[in-house]
Amino acid sequence: MIIPHPLLGPRDAAEFTYLGDTSLLMRPDPSAEAKPEKLMQAFHDYVHLRDNPTGVHKELWFHEQGDRSWLVVTRNISTHEIIAVELASDVKKASKGKSK
Amino acid sequence: MRYSIWSIIKQGLRSNRDWKTAWRDPEPKASYDAVIIGGGGHGLATAYYLASEHGMTNIAVIEKGWIGGGNVGRNTTIIRSNYLLPGNEAFYELSLKLWEGLEQSINYNAMVSQRGIINLFHSDAQRDAAVRRGNSMILHGADATLLNQDDLRRMCPYLDFENARFPIMGGLMQKRGGSVRHDAVAWGYARAADLLGVDIIQNCEVTGFIMEAGKCVGVDTTRGKIRAKKTGVAVAGSTSRVMGKAGMRLPIESHVLQAFVSEGLKPIIPGVITYGAGHFYISQSDKGGLVFGGDIDGYNSYAQRGNLPVVEDVCEGGMALVPMIGKAKLLRMWGGIMDMSMDGSPFIDKTDIPGLYLNAGWCYGGFKATPGSGWCFAHLLATDTSHDVATAYRINRFQSGAALDEKGSGAQPNLH
Ligand SMILES: Cc1cc2nc3c(=O)[nH]c(=O)nc-3n(C[C@H](O)[C@H](O)[C@H](O)COP(=O)(O)OP(=O)(O)OC[C@H]3O[C@@H](n4cnc5c(N)ncnc54)[C@H](O)[C@@H]3O)c2cc1C
After folding, report:
1. A-chain residues near B237 (CB < 8 A)
2. Where are the alpha helices (DSSP H) in B107-159?
3. pTM for the full model?
4. Which ligand 1 atom is at minimum distance from the Cα of B44?
5. What is the end-to-end Cα distance of chain A in Å, rounded?
6. Which domains does chain B have, with CATH numbers?
7. Taking residues B1-21, what's their average pLDDT?
């Protein structure tokens, strides 16, 4: 697979390490949940559970042997076709903007 | 018809015209006592043991393609019980014992060959870890032998013992480990289950579950509704997809693992050898092909094929360990989709939905588990209690802090 890096252009996927579903960007906020059981549940789900869908999947890749940026790659995991690539920092900013 | 030397001679004398198909091709009935989704090794073994051990014969296995087309027909066929953790080792040892008696019990030649598996070590620390693992295995009634370099030189003189970076110091051997003909496992269990009255329904995809008053009472399929008092799911790489239809999110990611076979060569590799300093393992099939593989590709995939970086990594491991294989030509390579769990260990458990049971999370190591998994899943379906050796395989173990992480690498499926 070739990942079109938004800053560096096309890069071999072997330069990256893979973390997983972008739900990992949405870490639960400990200060927003007062009940410890609910907080435990939220963290359990965050760390361990995955949608694991077929077809389009948004996922985190780290350009370890490159510029060490985190990317959000939108990929069809049934065909390995890469649909879109963004900087994870931009995605995170955009999602914060929305929730406010 | 019972298979034996006499049946072969008799049919041979009659120009082989009286062989019957090995299992029927029945129409699905409107209802069963239990249905198993997935005609892989685990689903078929479960059906066989439900019928043979628990007397449940009004049951069906529902397979979306043909039986044996999934991972049971794609794996590198290694069987062993060299696990470390108590929650795992007793289970895998039961499974290995069942392999030892399998061909007699199902009357089918699955070519179970206990040719031994050797895990190599390359440093003092790795030797200590091997000794600890071997002791854990022996405590659970399995066998383990520590080999030094001289022992290994006698068995496999072609290994690169003096490799500058990772010299081979010795290995932990399990003599009772080995390999099995994978397709024959699917066919043998299918035939034996069919003879006991189990319906094996192929080309029938489960598209949803029939829920009534919060209970699972059957499945929707491409060939109509099939009602069942109990529904067991054993669909390996498709687990999240199928369980998603019951609204469940699971601690599983689907990843692709590749495997490779060379052209046929004279016998050279005695058993299974695994490299301790990289991702590479190798054995030789009875036809002579070198069967080898390495690490998973490491990203979510449902594509049943992998990418070249892992091919390169596997070949580098092979060249570092067994330089002579550089001369062999590659015949085939392929990939299979595996249900990688968050701690690398499986699930055999009830779900929160009454009537719905789950068997999943086998990662890249579920072939060896086939008889044990079928045995324990059948026990769970028939008795509603976990089998003694499968009590650790709970779906909610991450909530209670009871993860079974052999590698200790945490909730990161591509590191297990
Ligand atoms: C390349 C490779 C090498 C491996 N090497 C080894 C090894 O050396 N040793 C080892 O122990 N393990 C190994 N494994 C792992 C092992 O193959 C699997 O863990 C095991 O086969 C999974 O169980 P199964 O046989 O039941 O799965 P499968 O054979 O995949 O069965 C699942 C079945 O469910 C069916 N299904 C899916 N969705 C539906 C639906 N909606 N409706 C109906 N049916 C459905 C599928 O078609 C499939 O036939 C390897 C795997 C791969 C890919």
Report:
1. none
2. 124-139, 149-155
3. 0.96
4. 26
5. 36
6. 5-14+29-77+182-251+343-415 (3.50.50.60), 114-176+253-341 (3.30.9.10)
7. 93
